Amino acid sequence: MRQFLQQVQRVVVKVGTSSLIHPNGMINLASIDELAFVLTDLKNQGKEVILVSSGAVGVGMHQLNLAKRPTTIPEQQAVAAVGQAALMNIYNQRFTTYSQQTGQILLTRDVIEFPESRQNVINTLEQLLKMGIIPIINENDTVAVDELDHLTKFGDNDQLSAIVTQLTQADLLIMLSDIDGFYSANPMTNPDAKLYAHVPRITETILAQAGGKGSQFGTGGMSSKLKAAQRIFEMQGAMILANGKQPKIIFDILQGAEIGTLFKEEQ
Ligand code: ADP
């Protein structure tokens, strides 16, 4: 089932805020550094790598010394504006250590609805990859606001990472979270929850097993990851949800090791 992973040529990696920020609100430099190392090495192996990174609000909170995530949309946008620049600065420092160039792309999810913007995004991404540059993508938080659901959805890059995977026709989306994969129930509240190694389709049962709330700094929660997985199924693609605590597991994932949950149709 996982043999195809060794042939993966183009990969999108999505990291959640919980992989970038310690629970106490400080920046997780070890994790960010390891991520830069791993992604650069994959590129050096000849693969094409795209990073979709959350964390702008988390890093902004750190920069501005805020203990609590602000609740209004303009406040969150302001914090994200500060945090996005700071986050890119940290990424650039780390990637530069490994002599890897990165480029920042800020997108809104609706790019796919406008053929011209869609094509421009594809052109930019393809050009960056051709130049050996790792694109680092985030949602353009100043523009993109899900008015009705901003408290839970703001800054959630799960859908965006699936959209980027579609736009670039990538072979695989690796979604790194604060949890080992998709379980039969939320393991934070249910100790009997079992980890799925493989989910071949999104069913009502699977949807019902995604518990409501996400982590303290994370925003999307599991149902948002399932929505992303649904997009991947629609393109007959593959997605792996795994723990981002140690980004080096990406090497093992691409060797085909049974890590995390694979979302892919049975062949
Ligand atoms: P991140 O910010 O790392 O992307 P989220 O906080 O958005 O992560 O989502 C991960 C969280 O989803 C987990 O910490 C867990 O509490 C919750 N969750 C709810 N239901 C499930 C489930 N069935 N399997 C795994 N995690 C679940």
UniProtKB/TrEMBL annotation:
Residue intervals of the Aspartate/glutamate/uridylate kinase domain: 9-236
CDD domains: AAK_G5K_ProB (cd04242)
Swiss-Prot/TrEMBL catalytic activity: L-glutamate + ATP = L-glutamyl 5-phosphate + ADP
Keyword annotations of the record: Amino-acid biosynthesis, ATP-binding, Cytoplasm, Kinase, Nucleotide-binding, Proline biosynthesis, Transferase
Metabolic or biological pathway, per its Swiss-Prot or TrEMBL entry: Amino-acid biosynthesis; L-proline biosynthesis; L-glutamate 5-semialdehyde from L-glutamate: step 1/2
InterPro entries, sorted: AceGlu_kinase-like_sf (IPR036393), Asp/Glu/Uridylate_kinase (IPR001048), G5K_ProB (IPR041739), Glu/AcGlu_kinase (IPR001057), Glu_5kinase (IPR011529), Glu_5kinase/COase_Synthase (IPR005715), Glutamate_5-kinase_CS (IPR019797)
Root EC class: transferase
Location of the protein in the cell: Cytoplasm
Record flagged with keyword Amino-acid biosynthesis: yes
GO molecular function: glutamate 5-kinase activity
Binding, ATP: K14, S177, D178, T219, G220, G221, M222, S223, S224, K225
Record's keyword annotation contains Phosphoprotein: no
EC number(s) recorded for this UniProt protein: 2.7.2.11
Sequence positions that bind substrate: S54, D141, N157
UniProt superkingdom: Bacteria
Function: Catalyzes the transfer of a phosphate group to glutamate to form L-glutamate 5-phosphate.
Sequence similarity: Belongs to the glutamate 5-kinase family.
PANTHER family: GLUTAMATE 5-KINASE, ISOPENTENYL PHOSPHATE KINASE
Protein name: Glutamate 5-kinase
Lineage: Bacteria, Bacillati, Bacillota, Bacilli, Lactobacillales
